[in-house]
């Protein structure tokens, strides 16, 4: 009986190690940009653990990198079902809507992420961008301000807040764009030269 228990324990340990190895291998493929191999490895891992939140999310990101958006969205939605507090899944799901120019639904997903972590500059920036694109300029300005208050080095928020201020003929637009330029945000130089010199 004692040996049977030890044999069972060893089998469980081997299975657990195999699952961990598959996930590590999948992550290595993803990090090296080999998204097709990453998806295959995530698939193998998910055969053993079909509700593994991290593997599902990472597979979704790999699908996204390959432009396979339907598969990516299915994984992000599954992650949200498993863990309704997964900020990354809401952000990725929101980016899908943003890419599709469905700014209302993008803002809806970004807002869910923001509400889960109100100190996230990234969530606030994405929420601002979606509102900006949807023409809700007051909401956009509010969330650009929040994003910058949460991270004084958020060049993207400075750039787009500056562009919005210029569009609305408000003071400080060029200062924001200059700040984005000083932080090193790509495209800030051109915008500054075009509108602020």
From TrEMBL:
Membrane topology per record: Single-pass membrane protein
Molecular function, one GO term: mitochondrion targeting sequence binding
TPR repeats: 19-52, 53-86, 87-120
GO biological process, one term: protein import into mitochondrial matrix
Localization in the cell: Membrane
Keyword hit for 4Fe-4S: no
Domain of life of the source: Bacteria
GO CC annotations on file: membrane
Keywords: Membrane, Repeat, TPR repeat, Transmembrane, Transmembrane helix
Keyword Repeat: yes
Pfam families associated with the record: TPR_1 (PF00515), TPR_16 (PF13432), TPR_7 (PF13176)
InterPro entries: TPR-like_helical_dom_sf, TPR_rpt
Principal place of residence: membrane
Transmembrane domains' residue ranges: none
Family assignment from sequence similarity: Belongs to the Tom70 family.
Protein name as catalogued: TPR repeat-containing protein
Top-level taxonomy: Bacteria, Pseudomonadati, Bacteroidota, Cytophagia, Cytophagales
């Amino acid at each position: 009986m004692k040996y049977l228990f030890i044999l069972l324990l060893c089998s469980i340990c081997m299975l657990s190690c195999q699952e961990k190895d598959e996930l590590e291998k999948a992550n290595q493929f993803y990090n090296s940009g080999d998204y097709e191999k990453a998806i295959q490895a995530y698939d193998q891992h998910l055969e053993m653990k079909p509700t593994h939140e991290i593997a599902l999310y990472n597979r979704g990101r790999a699908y996204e990198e390959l432009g396979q958006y339907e598969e990516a969205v299915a994984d992000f939605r599954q992650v949200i079902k498993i863990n309704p507090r997964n900020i990354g899944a809401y952000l990725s799901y929101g980016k899908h809507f943003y890419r599709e120019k469905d700014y209302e639904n993008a803002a809806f997903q970004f807002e869910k992420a923001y509400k889960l972590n109100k100190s996230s500059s990234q969530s606030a920036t994405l929420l601002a961008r979606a509102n900006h694109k949807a023409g809700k300029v007051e909401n956009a300005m509010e969330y650009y301000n929040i994003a910058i208050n949460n991270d004084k080095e958020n060049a993207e928020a400075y750039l787009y807040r500056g562009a919005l201020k210029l569009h609305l003929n408000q003071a400080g637009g060029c200062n924001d764009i200059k700040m984005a330029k000083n932080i090193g945000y790509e495209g800030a130089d051109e915008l500054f030269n075009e509108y602020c010199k």
